[in-house]
Amino acid sequence: MAMLVLLFSLFAGFAHAEPAAININTADVAALASLNGIGQSKAEAIVAYRDANGPFQSSEDLANVKGIGERTVEKNAERLTVE
Question: What are the recorded Gene Ontology BP terms (predicted)?
Fold first, then answer.
């Protein structure tokens, strides 16, 4: 019985695991596309913007990329990092 409780708690813990943080200054297109509201084309736009303008100073700067608004940045705020 104790083994079943332990297994259940392990599986329940995995179900609630937080997605990994994404450094928007180093992430590739695939990683960026995993963000909420960011698909392949917006991820490519982020990389192109970063290449043209240099690294982002803060995650809020992501809203400077055409097609990405403040709401998208807010939805992903807990996953975004800038290093």
Answer: DNA repair; protein secretion by the type II secretion system
Domain total for the chain?
1
Q: Are 77 and 21 in contact (CB under 8 A)?
A: no
Output the DSSP codes for 10-56: HHHHHHTPPPPPEETTT--HHHHHTSTT--HHHHHHHHHHHHHH---
The pTM of the full predicted model, rounded to 2 decimals, is 0.78
Asked if residue 49 belongs to a domain, the reply is yes
Measured in Å, how far apart are the chain's first and last C-alpha atoms? Answer: 46
38, 22 in Cβ contact below 8 A? Answer: no
The neighbour count for residue 62, using CB atoms within 10 Å, is 25
Non-local CB neighbours of 2 within 8 Å, separated by 6+ positions: none
